[in-house]
Amino acid sequence: MNAKISPSILNSDIAHLADEIEAISAADRVHVDVMDGHFVPNLSWGVPIVQAVAGVTELPIDTHLMIEAPDRWAPDYVTAGSTVVTFHWEAATAPIRLARELRNMGAKAGVALRPGTPVEPILDHLEEFDLVLIMTVEPGFGGQKFLPNTLGKVRAVKNAIRERNLDVEVQVDGGVNRETIHEALAAGADNFVIGSALFSAEDPSVEVLAFREILS
Ligand code: DX5
Ligand code: ZN
Predict the structure, then answer these.
(1) Protein residue with its CA nearest to atom 6 in ligand 1
(2) Binding site annotation covers 8?
(3) Which residues are annotated as active site (predicted)?
(4) What crossing angle do the helices spanning 204-215 and 180-187 adopt, rounded to 10°?
(5) Are 113 and 133 in contact (CB under 8 A)?
(6) Distance of CA 35 from the midpoint of ligand 2 (Å)
(7) Is 81 flagged in the annotation as binding?
(8) Which of 5, 6, 11, 179 to mutate to test the pocket of ligand 1 (most atoms within 8 A of CB)?
(9) Domain 4-215: which CATH class?
(10) pLDDT tens sequence across 88-134
(11) Is the pLDDT of residue 2 over 90?
């Protein structure tokens, strides 16, 4: 599986969002972080931003829901134009049922785990998902420091995927930069959410190519 780059627009210059997305057009996805101020102590944006992003890019949209009650809200993000909708295992009432609903709507279903959530409960259900997101920071804010002790979970999920020959992406999100990406890659991640390391760079388009080079 080719490694994918999913820039997080959370810390981009949102007054010029279309230009920011244009700058990362050599990436593989656009990662949209939805926060509700309850599941995480921060508030970002919702359905309208996904619709707006879908209107200015051909890149698939990877929506990361850091919200309570994803069972109720996640389908709306498929309708809004997301290719992948990832919800948190900790927040869902019926995660398997929700994943099936998202797939039935034509989207890819992702499941995310906070740093403190063990991976074992999802290992029996990997075929229900297209993507497993191992958070490498506590969700809620961009610009935090990568937590290397989360990489054991990346290894565990990757091993299970390999053993069973499944087609599931392993995504890491939080604190990924030109240094930490090597550790995540070695642990088995194949999809890299990158926020501040891209958008705080002078030229995000150059930075995407630099990450592409590292992953090639
Ligand atoms: C954190 C979000 C991340 C974040 C990544 O809760 O899920 O997607 O924006 O940003 P960096 O790369 O700055 O950690
Ligand atoms: Zn995210």
Answers:
(1) 139
(2) yes
(3) 33, 173
(4) 40
(5) yes
(6) 9
(7) no
(8) 11
(9) alpha beta
(10) 999 999 999 999 999 999 999 999 999 999 999 999 999 999 999 99
(11) no
Collapsed DSSP state (helix, strand, coil) of residue 184: helix
Query: Tokens 């995480």 correspond to what residue?
Result: 40
- Domain ranges (residues) in the chain: 4-215
Q: What ipTM does the predicted assembly reach?
A: 0.98
Query: Could you tell me what percent of the chain has a pLDDT over 70?
Result: 100
Task: State if residue 80 touches ligand 1 by the CB under 6 angstroms criterion.
Answer: no
Cβ(143)–Cβ(176) under 8 Å? no
Residue holding tokens 């994803």? 70
The finding on whether 136 has its CB within 6 A of some atom of ligand 1 is no
d(CA 90, CA 77): 19
SS3 for 144-182 is CCCCHHHHHHHHHHHHHHHHCCCCCEEEEECCCCCCHHH
φ, ψ (nearest 5 deg) of residue 142 = -80, 170
Q: How many residues does the chain have?
A: 216
Question: Residue 35: beta bridge partners?
Answer: 66
**Tokens (6 digits) for 168:** 């599931």
Query: Model confidence over 127-181: pLDDT tens digits?
Result: 999 999 999 999 999 999 999 999 999 999 999 999 999 999 999 999 999 999 9
